[in-house]
TrEMBL record:
The lineage of its organism: Bacteria, Bacillati, Bacillota, Negativicutes, Selenomonadales. Zn(2+) binds at C110, C112, Y131, C135. This is Glutamyl-Q tRNA(Asp) synthetase. It comes from Propionispora vibrioides. Residues 7-274 form the Glutamyl/glutaminyl-tRNA synthetase class Ib catalytic domain. L-glutamate binds at R10, F11, A12, P13, S14, E46, Y190, R208. Binds 1 zinc ion per subunit. A motif ('KMSKS' region) lies at residues 246-250. One of its GO terms (molecular function) is ATP binding. A motif ('HIGH' region) lies at residues 13-23.
Length: 318
């Protein structure tokens, strides 16, 4: 008999603004994957960035999730075995992982200024430029300012199989370069924090928007260097407006709160998102709980999902 460990999934929003349709889409699909498997859902607030995170947004996010009919078993107010569930309260855990990497001689201080980094980027390039390794072997005395800390990225390809997107690989050293683990202001970087959190919270399945696909090889590298088992990854396509651009304010106010204030029902939002995802053949309003039995990753679209005029009208007219 094989014993299958219970699936543990999470939704990890950054409380830097109001929850919008794009967040609701990722939250709904992450929640469905876990609930359909009878697993445990974790809510984690990624409030690492002290300049942009607000506790008010964390409260609103939780309210909006409840309103949409999405619940969780462990999280900020609920608690749980692997808390705290705010990244801002988990610094000691990030420090431990950082110290282990430092002890293995995988971390070095970086004194580059923003201006130096910008100067290293080719003109007109809108792609992320790999860090040229300026500080890897910086000779002489370091400048008199607080350094960031970068990972000494080993050469080699990082490959993995995404549950939706299939095979994916990246040469992290060549395409990204030595990336930041801790900012000069002492804040740990998302890439390190998310790995520490998902590992410590025993997350087995990560489902998130495919804007983060580009981060996954960096995270897998950290799992490897820290000797931890990585979760299974699923990157779902982003929601786009009819003009083919990522859904944003320019398409109208897409915050859940404003839709709610206009009298839109949660069932309408859930039904629209489920139809867009490919989980419903034809739109009908329905509560999130009724989708659990219908969830099938094989049905979920791999291509960017366009919110059509028709679904907009439905959302805006309630
Ligand atoms: N906090 C990230 C965001 O809101 C998500 C991180 C993740 O799911 O790994 O974009």
């Amino acid at each position: 008999m094989t014993v299958t460990a219970t699936m543990r999934g999470r939704f990890a929003p950054s409380p830097t603004g109001e929850m919008h349709l794009g967040n609701a889409w990722a939250a709904l699909l992450a929640w469905l994957q876990v609930r359909a498997a009878g697993g445990t859902m974790v809510l984690r607030m990624e409030d690492l960035d002290p300049d942009r995170s607000r506790s008010r947004y964390a409260e609103l996010l939780q309210e909006d999730l409840h309103w949409l009919g999405l619940d969780w078993d462990e999280g900020p107010a609920t608690g749980g075995e692997y808390g705290p569930y705010f990244q801002s309260e988990r610094t000691a855990l990030y420090q431990m992982a950082f110290d282990r990497l430092t002890a293995a001689d995988l971390v070095y201080p970086c004194f580059c200024t923003r201006a130096e980094l910008a100067a290293a980027a080719p003109h007109g390039s809108d792609r992320e430029t790999p860090y040229p390794g300026t500080c890897r072997n910086r000779p002489g005395l370091p400048p008199n300012r607080r350094p960031a800390a970068r990972l000494r990225v080993p050469a080699g390809i990082v490959a993995f199989t995404d549950q939706l997107q299939g095979e994916h690989s990246q040469d992290v050293a060549a395409e990204i370069g030595d990336f930041v683990l801790r900012r000069a202001d002492g804040t740990f970087a998302y890439q390190l924090a998310v790995v520490v959190d998902d590992a410590q919270m025993r997350i087995t399945h990560v489902l998130r928007g495919d804007d983060l696909l580009v981060s996954t090889p960096r995270q897998l590298l950290l799992y490897r260097l820290l000797g931890w088992e990585p979760p299974v990854f699923t990157h779902v396509p982003l929601l786009l407006g009819e003009d083919g651009h990522r859904l944003s304010k320019r398409h109208g106010d897409v915050s859940i709160r404003s839709l709610r204030q206009r009298g839109v029902r949660p069932e309408t939002i859930v039904g629209s998102l489920a139809t867009a995802a490919g989980l419903l053949k034809a739109f009908r309003p329905l509560p999130a709980s009724e989708l659990i039995a219908r969830f099938d990753l094989a049905k979920v679209k791999k291509q960017p999902v366009i919110i059509t005029g028709e679904s907009w009208r439905r959302l805006l007219n309630g």
